[in-house]
Amino acid sequence: MVNYKLARRYAKGLLKFAVETKQEELISSDIQKLSTLLQNSPDLASFLASPIIDKAKKSEVCAEVFKGFSAPVSKFVQVVLDHGRESELKPILKQYGIIAKEEQGINKVVITSVVELPKEQQDQIISSNASFFNLKTSQYEIINRIDPSLIGGFILRIGDLQLDASIKSKLNKLKKDFNVNHYTPKF
């Protein structure tokens, strides 16, 4: 089970170290490479997550596999191994990416629509709803998801906030309103 708080704590620590030593770009680049390596190599990920394999063997293999990475990232992986958190390495790397983007002021925006939207329309949706989300920056990482069941409209999600302007939700609300009978006594 992924421990979100733990992953975020380790990621924040690494980012703080990267900022203090002015190695943000180097460490971010290596973290991205490491994340891709773990994503593309399920054997390595399952090897690290296995509770059967002892720490010494894991450390030895990691030292060999990660020798092409920068010293801070290699040491960070070793710290994660020393604390027995190797099964949390993938979530830690994911949280690092999220926190690093937050620190740079880049908002992750997910727009769900019936069809792929052109960039201009995505920008228009974001700018017209910026006040709803209280956006302070104009830097975005836009993800356009396709969901034909929406019928029309869109769902805009930025951070923990979501604006549902889809026809599907409006029809569901209408259906719910029609099912409520205001004329029967409720006593």
Structure description:
The chain is of the alpha+beta class and 187 residues long. The protein has two domains: 4-103, Orthogonal Bundle (Peroxidase, domain 1), CATH 1.10.520.20; 107-178, no CATH class. It is 58% helix and 14% strand. It contains nine helices and four strands, in the order ααααααβααβββα. The chain has helices spanning 4-20, 24-40, 42-49, 55-65, 71-82, 89-104, 119-128, 130-133, 167-179; strands at residues 107-113, 140-146, 153-158, 161-166. It has a four-stranded mixed sheet. A hairpin with a 2-residue loop joins strand 3 and strand 4 (161-166). It is elongated, with a radius of gyration of 22 Å. The model has no long low-confidence stretch (mean pLDDT 90).
Distance between the termini: 47 Å
Q: What's the total helix number?
A: 9
Kindly estimate the percentage of residues that lie in beta strands according to DSSP: 5-15%
Secondary-structure element order, as H and E?
HHHHHHEHHEEEH
| Structural category | alpha+beta
Q: Roughly how much helix do the residues carry, as a percent range?
A: 55-70%
